[in-house]
Specification:
Elements (H helix, E strand, L loop, with lengths): L17 H7 L7 H20 L3 H15 L10 H14 L2 H14 L7 H9 L6 H10 L2 H11 L5 H8 L3 H29 L1
Helix pairs in contact: 2-3, 2-4, 3-4, 4-9, 5-7, 7-10, 8-10, 9-10
GO molecular function, one term: sigma factor activity
GO biological process, one term: DNA-templated transcription initiation
InterPro entries: RNA_pol_sigma-70-like, RNA_pol_sigma-70_dom, RNA_pol_sigma70_r2, RNA_pol_sigma70_r4_t2, RNA_pol_sigma_r2, RNA_pol_sigma_r3/r4-like, WH-like_DNA-bd_sf
Length: 200
């Protein structure tokens, strides 16, 4: 019979909630390291899909801002996960031009290199069976606001409520932006869909 080891002194028990952990980090800053361990990989994945090589720097900045701003976090108002993605998304907005160039580069390169997994994931979530270069162009053409909602839903897989918290907007606005963003992507790719359906 195996028994789990008790936590080391000063280390939080593994089942502690994110909210409790963040609250405890106010008195014991070392506790924040567990928040980083829990969420740095998924935040990095989200950022790398949006801004590429800038992701490493933005992950560091995301968690630095979260650490400094943790006194303003209100337990129960928002999941810690959504709060972190909100910080990350605000940082992406500072690099909106880099992100748009990145999608346009995907579009240009799609005919010359193997299709990327990340654009395929977006295609799956918006029911697109189109060429990835056209999808990249469609994403680049979205407004920053619509793209943020679409990619938080797609890449980070946040719920409507979590996206609302992350972006500090009403859930109804999340729904309308997601609907609009998906619609614009579909409109951009509609000719390709028809071609695919006709030849299927």
């Amino acid at each position: 019979m195996t028994t789990s080891k008790p936590p080391r002194r000063g280390e939080p028990p593994p089942e502690i909630s994110d909210e409790d952990l963040l609250t405890e980090s106010l008195a014991t800053p070392e506790r924040f390291a567990t928040i980083f361990d829990r969420y740095a990989p998924v935040v990095h994945g989200y950022l790398s899909r949006r801004v590429g090589v800038l992701a490493d720097d933005l992950v560091s900045e995301t968690f630095l801002l979260a650490f400094r701003g943790r006194t303003g976090y209100v337990p129960g108002r928002a999941p810690v996960r959504a709060w972190l993605f909100g910080i990350a998304t605000n940082l992406v907005r500072r690099h909106a031009r880099d992100e748009e160039r990145r999608y346009r580069a995907f579009g240009r390169a799609a005919g010359h290199v193997e299709a990327t997994t990340e654009l395929g994931e977006v295609a799956g979530r918006v029911d697109a069976q189109a060429l990835r270069d056209e999808l990249a162009e469609a994403l680049a053409a979205l407004t920053d606001e619509d793209r943020d909602v679409l990619l938080l839903w797609t890449y980070a897989q946040l719920s409507y409520a979590e996206i609302a918290v992350a972006l500090d907007i009403p859930v109804g606005t999340v729904r309308s932006r997601l609907h609009r963003g998906r619609g614009k992507v579909r409109d951009r790719l509609s000719d390709l869909w028809l071609t695919t359906e006709e030849t299927a």
